[in-house]
Amino acid sequence: MSYRVKMLLPLVGMFVLGCVVVAAVTREGREIKQPLPQSLDDLAKVRLVEVRDAGGQIVLGGSFTMATKKNGDVEGEATLAATGVDTDAVGKAEVEVSTRNGNVEKELEVEVSNLAPGATFSLFIDGQQAAVITTNPRGHAELEMTNRPTD
């Protein structure tokens, strides 16, 4: 399986799951696609997404609204609202599960803004930590994880 870097720019931060880097953010906030962790194997059933600060406080949170398309694909969106820890923080999360040529393709995208610049946050999906993110100097970060190879 191979992966392709979208932009080759100096890195500001990385998304880490355990000891495995799952995504990295460039200085401009662009992201690198990375493998979807096994803990997120059933994206069609996810409900809750939270972004927590280094102290474990929930900074952003939201619930996925899921929809099944006529072709059987499942898509979900969650608006991430500030909890009061960082009142101007905003974000969104999207999931997509589709079948192409007999292969089930899964993708999770998360984008956050107005967080503390250069700070580390944990992404939780349904109560399980999925990644650690570091914001760029503008307090922005994007994460895209997928089970399909990138080219």
Written overview of the protein:
The model is unreliable at 1-31 (pLDDT under 50). The chain starts with 10 loop residues before the first strand and ends in a 5-residue tail after the last strand. The protein has one domain. It has 151 residues and is an all-beta fold. Strands 3, 4, 5, 6, 7, 8, 9, 10, 11 and 12 form a 10-stranded mixed sheet that branches. Strands 1-2 form a two-stranded antiparallel sheet. Helix content is 0%, strand content 54%. The chain is elongated.
Could you give a short description of this structure?
By secondary structure, the chain is mainly beta. It contains no helices and twelve strands.
Question: Which features would summarize this protein structure in a list?
Answer:
single chain; about 150 residues; mainly beta; 10-stranded mixed beta sheet; two-stranded antiparallel ribbon; 12 strands; about 0% helix; disordered N terminus
- SS-derived structural category: mainly beta
What gap, in angstroms, lies between the N and C termini?
Answer: 10 Å
* Percentage of β-strand residues: over 45%
Instruction: Report the helical percentage.
Output: under 10%
Q: Globular, elongated, flat, extended or rod-shaped: what is the shape? A: elongated
The major sheet is characterized as: 10 strands, mixed
Total individual domains: 1
Radius of gyration: 15 Å
As residue ranges, the low-confidence spans are 1-31
Elements, N to C (H/E): EEEEEEEEEEEE
What's the number of helices? 0
